[in-house]
Amino acid sequence: MTLALTAVRCGVDEAGRGPLAGPVFAAAVILNPNQPIIGLADSKKLSERMRDRLALEIRKKALAFGIASATVEEIDRLNILQATMLAMQRAVKALCVIPDEALIDGNRCPILAMPARAIVRGDASEPAISAASILAKTARDAEMRRIHLLIPHYALDQHKGYDTPQHRAALIAHGPTAFHRKSFAPVRALLAHL
User: Fold this and answer.
1) Are 22 and 179 in contact (CB under 8 A)?
2) Digit-coded pLDDT (tens) for 148-191
3) What is the DSSP letter of 180?
4) Where do the domains of the chain lie, and which CATH numbers do they carry?
5) Helices 127-150, 48-61: crossing angle, 10 deg rounding
6) Alpha helix (H) ranges present in the chain?
């Protein structure tokens, strides 16, 4: 009797492509079919409390996970798309199990050592991508809370670096910091007037 081997797939997603500040994060997750996780969904559809709870469960039950980022300097040097691909590559390389295939949320794939397949809205349809979405988002939020302690007048703990009226007002009042993406139009425009 021969046992059928199931392909090992990792889900990959990012968090933080749109903000004006902070790194972009990515995560890769290989779920354990023998330890299902109830409630996986696109991280943007979950409350912060639910994301935090699920992130702990994913870290405990997954066969493997990797979390990585690309810095603000890399975002400004490469552009946000290429920096996101770099963070995804790093997250997959951080896995302690090598997957047979990577399922990537979105319509583009990073260059990886294994076949990769892009799935538009995969964070809503593929549990491993949902899990990656949750880990990337919670890791990035934690980093933005850490950065907030260094520059509290920007309130990064509240808006996580996104382009909100509160963040825009702080940028106008205090100017961009080393944590701001100088290649992004609102920050670049402010720098041009300093």
Assistant:
1) yes
2) 999 999 999 999 999 999 999 999 999 999 999 999 999 999 88
3) B
4) 9-192 (3.30.420.10)
5) 120
6) 48-61, 72-78, 80-93, 122-125, 127-150, 156-159, 165-174, 185-192
